Amino acid sequence: VRIIESVTRLPAQKARALLSKANRHVKTALAMGILGTERSEAEELLKENGGFLRRLLDRPHTKNPNIDAIFFDMDGTIVHYDLPIGLSTWAALGWALGIFSEQEEWVEQYLTKRVSFEEVWKTCAQRIAGRTFEEIRDVLFPCAGLPPYSRGFTDCIPLLRHHYRLGIISSGISVVAEEIQKSLHLDFECSNLLGLSQGKFDGTHAVRVPFDHKSEVVRKQADALGIPMGRICFVGDSSNDIQVFRAVGLPVAYNPKTEAVIEAAHGNVIGDFLQLPLLLEKF
Fold it and tell me: For residue 58, what pLDDT is reported?
């Protein structure tokens, strides 16, 4: 039941009922929940795909005629760091360089409106000036030189790339966003810069995606691509994505943190990125 809850985002009672309808076969229940099919069809689809649920999901995707681009949040959405506290690129940087407690103080000052978001990044850039990229490499890229991708993300990108413009808009750190864009051949990335020069942080910074004004950045990127906001899908996870959800044609919440995020996404919730092509087909 917990597996079905996690993947389908159904509450426990409905997950248990789905399992019962699937004759207590977990893969069948998942296929039913994800694809919205009856048991007989789910069983047949699984049979056609050798019993592999992921192979069933990883099939050719039909383009949504109303959507032209998919913009992804990064921290907590397409990457998720396993840290003592925090899950973001910002937190990973702090743990790697031993300044996480200081970062918490800077963020608290921002949240209580004593400093601006720009000042937080300026302070961080100055604090880490002279530190090397090698000090953070293994923390930011812990998976054989890759960031800790969320479930199904790298699998879903090839299914979507032929139909949509794809990119990242994140208040996280650009060194990770740039590597994701490069390795997965995304169309663009827009994130926040902590300057590096000859392998060392040089004290410079650039805030390109303010925490509370992400929707403005999304609109500018949509304009640059010549795509109306109503034809944008945005995938995010937290409160600072709510404003974006209200402005785009298809908001999607990945493992949302609060009920407010689910509500802003109109209930479009996924727990595995291979569910995203399916959601796009149904929308």
Answer: 66
